[in-house]
Amino acid sequence: MAVVLGVGVWLLAAACPPVARADGDATEAASKEYSRGNELARAARWAEALGAFEASYAAKAHALTLYNIGVCERVLGRATRARERFRAALARASADATELPASIREEVEGFLAEYGRILPRLAVTLEPRDAGIAVDGRPLREHREGDRVVLEAGVEAPGIGKAPPSATFDLELDPGTHVITITRQGYRDVVMTRDFAPGQKGPLNLVLSELPSTIHVSSTIIGAQVRVNDVDVGLTPVDVIRPAGSYHLVVSRAGYVPFTNDIKLGPGEESNLRATLAEERIPITKRWWFWTGAAGVVAAATVITYFVTRPTPAPQPYDGGSAGWVVMP
Predict the structure, then answer these.
(1) Is there a single domain that holds both residue 223 and residue 181?
(2) How far apart, in whole angstroms, are the C-alpha atoms of residue 170 and residue 148?
(3) What are the distances in angstroms from CA 262 to CA 240, 251, 259, 266, 269?
């Protein structure tokens, strides 16, 4: 909703701006469009008059033409655009005082002072600071006032939002209803409609929420267990959804060497992780049958060693019987 500011009588610079005749066709085209713009303005066809004055300025730049463009924008309720045109007219007049009569210059300065009182001005804090911001489908134009960054709405051509130069800045816009859009990859977009009263001041905090990160986990052996930061999250294949951050993953299954990976994800980021599980090779010394066989071998060796190394027992004394005869071997 546009809000028309100021007085009800709009004064256009009716006379064509003086231009050098040496410019030929450009001068003629500028003069023709300037005159047409005045006629349309007298008929209160302000949007058409604006187009004519813009065509005149494109053919031949002049401070009076900028002034008339500003008046048209002002009548149409586009305060920030009108102010931008009035500033440009004063800048040209500062370089060449003959382009803008003193009476009109004084009027322009009065308009600018009025806008300083009437335009809403909000102290914005944007998070994250590199998010793109647009108002009514237009990016913001930067204007500096000393060390303070001021972003003006409604001045730039339609387009996508741009990141501001800092996380905190002043936002100036026309009084009325506006649609503010904030976007950044990895965050939820914010589209808000707000009404701003003339001269409204105050803070405006614009904070985006992070989108969760996703890890798509698969493995060469289906059904492997997945643990994230020591928490069981299921069997492969599985999608793990977590806030942005760093994570330690372990993918394991009995009989296979566990697969481990450390991963760091930003907001809204997705990652595909495929775990290669290699069959576990158990050393022969850890297999049960190895030690069972080894125990048998040791036992047999012990028996053999015993029989080989034991001393031969002494023979029993020979008994000659009742006759007392003994036959020696």
Answers:
(1) no
(2) 8
(3) 14, 12, 11, 14, 15
**Domain-embedded: residue 324:** no
Pairing of strands 176-183, 190-196: antiparallel
Residue 170 — φ and ψ, nearest 5°?
-95, 135
Of 254, 275, 296, the residue that ends a domain is 275
Q: Using CA atoms, how far apart are residues 128 and 122, in angstroms rounded to an integer?
A: 18
Q: Which residues contact 299 (CB under 8 A, 6 or more apart)?
A: none
Contacts of 329 (CB under 8 A, 6+ apart): none
- The pTM score is 0.72
The answer to whether 169 and 151 are in contact (CB under 8 A) is yes
Q: Both tokens of residue 117?
A: 């009182």
pLDDT digits (tens, 9 = 90+) for 189-235: 999 999 999 999 999 999 999 999 999 999 999 999 999 999 999 99
Whether 127 and 187 map to the same domain: the answer is yes
Number of domains in the chain: 3
Give the domain range for residue 197.
Answer: 121-207
> What's the rounded Cα separation, in Å, for the pair 25 and 41?
24
Q: Give the whole-angstrom CA distance, residue 289 versus residue 256.
A: 21
> Residue 229: what are its φ and ψ, rounded to 5°?
50, 45
First to last CA, the chain: 139
